[in-house]
């Protein structure tokens, strides 16, 4: 954890200190705030990978043991608030699959406030396409209506908090009817870096009443569109067959204006091999189409750079080729085989290796193509077959040829 910076803000009596902290993502992070003469406070925050997380303000006090910002000051219900009537309307300009796809005519897309111009190229089926959303001045916006037409006289203030890419926007409104506000996002994070693809914005609206001791909050989340990649050097015009792929963010920008966000696509699970029925132990007819082949007890799995997948199916090591065919490259003898072994494909020599804990050896498959005798398609590269006993390191073969070494229980390779 590294401390990047500290900024101090002073409003009336309290002093607010803001920290930027760099942590490893993918788990929960516990922070402890401590300073004399205040009581220490602990906060646990879930930090995703490659994301900027904004914590709610932490209030330290010398008069209480707990963080007053995390616990309401009163548990009494606010009866003057009408949850059905007093609720904000929030929507964003970005709409999925609302732009592009049709280059035959020019159009104005009202939902996203985008102008599309299309010019056909004589003598071909190509079009020059322009989208105003690719212009530098086009901002992603959030539109809000915070109060309805009629509001109660007990309403004092309306609070608005927007958190997006580390930016914490705060605004307070007087209690007026039909409060409307548009938040324009410049497609950059809190460190002024460009944001590509899609991002999530969180909107919090709070209603403060004269007769209630706490603010009543409602939260919304929505998706906003960041920067597009520069696909044209012709003043924003682009050929409708000219596409560009942002592999960092998983975004495909097509020349007709359509944008495909692969991170937002639903995950698809398909069957690579197996019918749901078990194969016999000795299976000379097991080669063929992988989806039609049966499995006995798959215990190990690895893949190769050409797209092949290798399956350790009990006594058989089977290769699934990129075109969906499967065949056996090695068959173990059932008398001395292990029910739990590990396989890996070496990126150096391209051979498939088997770590067999019961035989105390590392095996190398000679050929990954179809062979007539799968039982003999291997060589022993490490291990004499004798077990290395615990605390007997002097007799385990360190410093000697690998074939003379004794292994205790080899696992992954």
From TrEMBL:
UniProt domain Teneurin TTR-like: residue ranges: 18-60
Domain Teneurin NHL: 266-412
The Teneurin 1-4-like FN-plug domain, residue ranges: 143-224
Gene3D superfamilies tied to this protein: TolB, C-terminal domain
Pfam family, any one: TEN_NHL
Gene Ontology annotations of biological process type: motor neuron axon guidance
Keywords: Disulfide bond, EGF-like domain, Repeat
The protein's name: Teneurin-m
């Amino acid at each position: 954890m590294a401390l990047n910076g500290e900024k101090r803000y002073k409003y009336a009596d309290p002093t607010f200190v803001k920290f930027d902290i760099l942590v490893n993502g993918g788990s929960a992070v516990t922070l402890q705030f401590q300073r004399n003469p205040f009581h220490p406070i602990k906060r646990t925050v879930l930090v995703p990978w490659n994301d900027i997380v904004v914590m709610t303000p932490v209030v330290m006090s010398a008069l209480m043991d707990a963080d007053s910002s995390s616990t309401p000051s009163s548990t009494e219900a606010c009866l003057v608030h009408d949850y059905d009537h007093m609720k904000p309307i929030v929507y964003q300009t970005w709409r999925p699959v609302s732009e592009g796809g049709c280059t035959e005519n020019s159009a104005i897309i009202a939902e996203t406030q985008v102008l599309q111009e299309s010019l056909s190229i004589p003598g071909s089926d190509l079009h020059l396409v322009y989208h105003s959303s690719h212009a530098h001045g086009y901002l992603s916006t959030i539109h809000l209506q915070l109060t309805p037409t009629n509001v109660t006289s007990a309403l004092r203030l309306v609070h608005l908090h927007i958190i997006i890419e580390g930016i914490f926007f705060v605004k307070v409104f007087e209690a007026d009817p039909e409060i409307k506000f548009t938040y324009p996002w410049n497609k950059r994070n809190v460190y002024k870096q460009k944001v590509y693809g899609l991002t999530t914005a969180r909107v919090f609206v709070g209603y403060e009443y004269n007769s209630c001791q706490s603010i009543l909050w409602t939260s919304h989340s929505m998706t906003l569109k960041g920067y597009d990649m520069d696909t044209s050097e012709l003043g924003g015009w682009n050929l409708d067959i000219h596409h560009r792929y942002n592999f960092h963010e998983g975004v495909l920008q097509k020349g007709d204006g359509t944008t495909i966000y692969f991170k937002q696509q639903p995950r698809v699970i398909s069957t690579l091999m197996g019918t749901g029925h078990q194969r016999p132990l000795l299976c000379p007819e097991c080669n063929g189409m992988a989806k039609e082949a049966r499995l006995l007890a798959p215990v190990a799995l690895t893949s190769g750079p050409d797209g092949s997948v290798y399956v350790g199916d009990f006594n058989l090591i089977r290769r699934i080729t990129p075109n969906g065919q499967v065949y056996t490259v090695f068959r173990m003898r059932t008398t001395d085989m292990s029910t739990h072994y590990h396989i890996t494909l070496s990126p150096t020599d391209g051979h498939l290796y088997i770590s067999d804990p019961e035989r105390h050896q590392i095996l190398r498959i000679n050929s990954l193509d179809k062979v007539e005798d799968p039982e003999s398609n291997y060589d022993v590269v490490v291990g004499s077959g004798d077990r290395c006993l615990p605390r007997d390191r002097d007799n385990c073969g360190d410093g000697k040829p690998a074939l003379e070494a004794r292994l205790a229980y080899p696992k992954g390779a």
